[in-house]
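Re: Re: token formats

Sure, here are both.
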Amino acid sequence: MSDEKKAVVLLSGGLDSATVAAIVREQGFALYCLSFRYGQRQEIEVDKARRLATFFGAREHLVLNLDMGLIGGSALTDRAIEVPKEGESLNVDEVIPVTYVPARNTIFIAYAASWAEVVGARDILIGVNALDYSGYPDCRPEYLAAMQRSINLGTRQGVQNPDYFRLQAPLMELKKSEIIRWGVSLGVDYGMTISCYDPDSAGRPCGLCDSCRLRENAFREAALVDPAKNHSGMAK
């Protein structure tokens, strides 16, 4: 085995995960990108993830099919629950939005750890952010610390090499505008990403959901123009 650095990056096709992929590439890691088709409304994000993986020169890009729609409980997977469109849940403290998908990051990280063990990657990276994603319990530092401990306790590699796996969230304490500036400095084309929770059949963003509003506000605060607005309907 070589001493090549490898990292599994959870790549959703969104702004944050694209930035994480750019950071990892800049640090000299070989990228193993992992995406999920899990019954989400915004399934176009999987197409975005594929394009981003190619853009970043990923060594491999694995797309796993799950059906979390059978579980439901989220506006992103259950068509009977509407996505909020008027900003009523935008950055509201101590409120878990209906766009929270039950245990989603726990499931995703478990798959990432499984694949990391197989490909020989020590580092697992996720684009969660505690500042701009209010109310999501699986975006907190204490949650990620617990998950890192769990995957080290529950894998052969972690048992044979204590504290082997490193679960990293480099964007955790950054404002969305800071994330955008960092990504731009690394050459991220945000026109290739999507953020909308409820895009139409052509992939056009609704412009009204929390995620759309956060993105718009962040580009404004960063004094930058969102390049997705110059793309033909397939990005956000």
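Second one below.
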Amino acid sequence: MIIREEIEKSELENLSPYASMSVYSKGRAYPQEECDIRTVYQRDRDRIIHSKAFRRLKDKTQVFLAPQGDHYRTRLTHTLEVSQTARTIAKALRLNEDLVEAIALGHDLGHTPFGHAGERALNQICPSGFAHYKQSVRVVELLEKNGKGLNLTWEVRDGILNHRTAGSPHTLEGQIVRFCDKISYIHHDMDDAQRAGIISEESLPEDLVNLLGHSIRERMNTMIHDIVRNSINQPQIIMSDTIARAMSDMRAYMFEHVYKSPVAKHEEKKAITMITQLYQFYYDNPEAMSIEYQDLIYKAQQPKERVVCDYISGMTDQYSIAQFEKHFIPSAWDKL
């Protein structure tokens, strides 16, 4: 018996009946020969990790634009923290860890440079709009591998598309990632904000601290345990009403005191201006983009405005700054 079949058999015997079994996957957009060692979800995880878009996450902003310090989160560390938390819950509920991991690792592949500031800029200027969760799916379906995409399973693509708060994942594994994305960014952004001196542990609402815990570790532990307790042997992933409301209130606190804070966002207007000007430049000068993006326009007949978004959203923070300087900042003659 080949190893993959042994793993698939073990899933059927040991996972919850509500788990997404690898052998029952709805499959890929186009069929491929099965691996003799890895299940379909393990292959998806590996394809995401080895993608260029995944590597670029290490140089993309999470919340703080151009933070001065070695310990602030990036889009990559956020992704890894989501994956770790989601796998913990999946293991406790006997759900498919490989599917959870693949969704978590791929959920932010389409994020822009400079976090949600870059996303807002592209959404405002592009006629058809821009949303990072849709872009993440576009990355894995089209942009990776020079227009071939990663050909991931339906379940992974569904989880990536629906990871946002308003999403409705069709698998329990996708529902776990949706919760863990929120749990992770609330707490690691809180940690970064405390490091930056924007908020302190003492400034948090007393009622929420008394309910959820008196440290970031305790509050994460409370939320994770609440999900596990309320979701065991259930056909959906749920929180208790009390903890769900508290998490929503903590998220609202973060928006008011951190995400909208002038300390955290003092460079945001500059980032939006830069992304907006880059969009207009590449729209007017598509030949300035990399050849694979030009091919998307002229060979694959993709809309130019969408390809310009593809190009800019794929940039890291530093690369976008370098491109802005190249196209808009005069150079000394000895550098020409």
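The radius of gyration is 21 Å. Residues 36-179+264-329 form a domain with the Hypothetical protein af1432 fold (CATH 1.10.3210.10).
- S.
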